[in-house]
Each structure stands twice: as structure tokens, then as C-alpha cells.
Amino acid sequence: SQFLPKPVMDRLGPEDWETALRPRAVVATVLFCDLRGFAQETERQADQLLPLLDRISAALDVMTRRILEYGGVIGDFQGDAAMGFWGWPLPQEDRVAAACQAALAIRRDFSQAAQTPGNPLAGFQIGIGVASGRAVAGKIGTADHAKITVFGPPANLAARLEGITKLLHVPILLDDETASIARRIIGPEIGRIRPIARIRPYGLDQPVLVHELLPPESEYPLLRDHHLQLCQQAVEAFIAGRWEEAFTMLHQLPAEDRGPDFLTAYIAQHHRVPPTPWDGTIIISSK
Fold it and tell me: What is the pLDDT, as a whole number, of residue 125?
């Protein structure tokens, strides 16, 4: 029950748990969430590690509670990071919508905490990567030690996307498959999506068009819907090599919007001329 949401527990019923938890191939959506600045905070508070641990535990509690609330499975902890996934042990038609709602809820919780002095989460920022695809999920390990987890391309990509949120200065990134499904099934009153760039993450062979998942306009009025349309047109122009056009459109977005900074800086570094050959892909050289 610490790993599986209650509706899944109820639906599994009296089935033999060894059979239910056996690893198998599934179509999964994976969410990877990490805290920002944890290593520096640990170094600064080397003589106050127990209070810091309490704050980290509170942060992980937010992540896991939201993952379970939206029907996900707790897959792993890595220091100050948590991973959840949808699509196992039972298929979930709403796995993408549920993962996106969990990501937005985590963002909302940390955003509200940042505005509350004394809140144990105040001062923490998060990055979230969400990716979908074929994976293997279940009880994985040895006779002496095992855990419930998922591995495969979407797990690797979700972790890479979380790392890239630092580079792109956005809290939540989706891969193209997740974004395509989310656009069809999530209304703007729940969440909005805009493309950011086509990149090839470090350590991966295939490029991916990454998208930012944003709260509704009523919750995040900095970016209006027409801003998102403008951003999409700018990214399309950038990929097509029309950099002057892309540069002009990106500068029409609000100055407080950090999302376009990566592309505008990349264009400026190359003197507004695409390198030759140009296929629209930015290669990320480090994690």
C-alpha cells in the first residue's frame, strides 16, 4: 500500500501478489521529479543534517502523495528525487492525463510553499520530466532485495527531461509522445502545452521535441493562450531554419517568461545563422 494507489489495490483483490507483481512489458508513462539545489543545501547545512532531512522528507511526501492521488505507482527514490509511473499493474487509459495532473499538482504545492514563510518546502524548487512508451514494470531485484519499479526508454527519458528543465528554465517537460496525447485529452482548464525545442539529450541517440506543461491561464496569467501560439510558431520557425523570424517572435513573449531564453541565447551565439548542416536539433552535451 506504500507503493500502489488504493484503487489499484482494490481492483487486484485476492490475486496472488507474486503473480500480480511479476515484471512484464507495458505501455507506461513515467514521472521523474527532483529538488533543485539539494547538494548545495546539504553542504551549507553539514552540521544540521537531521533538520534538513525532515525538509527533504516533507518534499518527497508531496511528490509521492500526488503520484498516489492520481493513480500512479511509486517506483523509486534517489536521494532528493522520486519516480512514479502509470500503466502497471493494470492498464490505464488515462495514464497520460493522470501523470500530467500529478506533475501540475506537485508544481502547485511547491509554488504555494515558496510564498509561505516558515513552510518546510520554502526555498525548494523542482524539476519534473514526463515521458511515455514501452517499458518493463514490476517487482525487480534479487531474492534478498527487490523493489517495485519501471525501466526502459520512457524511464531514461523522463530522468533526462528532468535534468534538462534546469537548462531550459522551466519546471515541467514532456516528451513528444506524452504531449501529443495530452493535447487530445487534457483541456486548457487543466493544463496547457507549448513546444520548447527539439533536442538530443545527453547519452541518447534520438532527438525529441520537448514541450512545457503549464497550469491553466487562470492560475498562470503571465502566459496567455496567444503567447503559447506565438511560441509554437517561433519553435517551428527555429526548427525550419528561419532564425530571424523565430528570434523576432520569441522577443514578443513576456520578459518574465524564462522558457524562450534557451532558444534566443542559442540563436544569438550562432549570430542568427543556423549551422550547416541544420536538421533543427540542438545536441545537449552533458547531463
Answer: 86
